[in-house]
Amino acid sequence: MTESNNSIVTLEKHGHLAVVTINRPEARNAINGDVAQNLELAIDNIESDDEIWVGILTGKGTVFCAGADLKAISSGQVAQITTPKGGFAGFVKRDRSKPFIAAVDGPALAGGCEIVLACDLVVASKAAKFGIPEVKRALVAAAGGLFRLPQVLPRNIAMELALTGEPISVERAFHFGLVNAISEAGDALKVATELAERICVNAPLAVRESRKIVLETFAHNAEDLWKLSAVGMANMVSTEDFMEGPMAFIEKREPVWKGR
Has 251 been annotated as catalytic? Predict the structure, then answer.
C-alpha cells in the first residue's frame, strides 16, 4: 500500500515495515532541496506512525545515491540540501527512534555513502560500492562520513577512503563489517525486507531501547564531531579550489587545483 508518492521520494507501508525510496534516477538520486525536504517528511511520517516499526531506505534505478547535487552546490544552493532536523538530505543528523536498513543496489558515493552510514544496518547487492570522493572536488565529507566510517571500518581503511577518495567494493565492505548482507544485483530490497521482518518479530519498544543503547557507545562526542565536520567544510568554502571542483565535474574535465 502506498502511503505517499510525491514522485521524488516515495513511502510505501507494508504491515510494520515502511520502504522509503529516493526517486531521482535521472540524476543518480543526487540530493537537491526537494529530495531533502521530502525525505525528512517521510521520516516524520514513519516516526509518528505507531504501526511502523522498521524503515528501509533505498534508491530508484542503478545508483543508490551519488551524494549532493553538485549543480545545486555550484549555483549556491548548499543550504537547500540540508534541513534543520535532519541535516544533509534531511536524514544524516536526524534523531530517530526506529531502526533503518539501507538497501543499496548500486553505488553509494559521497553524501550517498554518508546516508548509508546514518542507517543502522546495510544490505547491499553485488552492484554496490561505497566511497567518499569529496577530496576529488575540493570538498570535505561533512555529513558524518569522516567520523562514522572509522566507527564501522578499521582506522586505516577509513583513512584510505577519506584521503584517496576512491571507493571500496561491496565484498571488501562486507569483509570489514560495513555491510550486513550481500545480495545479487537487483535483490537488495528483497533481502533488506527479509532482515526487517526478522526485526519485526521482536518487541518494538525493546528494539528501540536496544538500538539507543548501542548507539550511545559511539555518541559521547557526537556534538564535537559535527562541529569539526562543519568547520572543515567552512574552511574549504573560503578557498578558490572550492568552486573549481564542482565546475570541473559539470564541465566534464579534470580539475586544476591551486591549493588556495
Answer: no
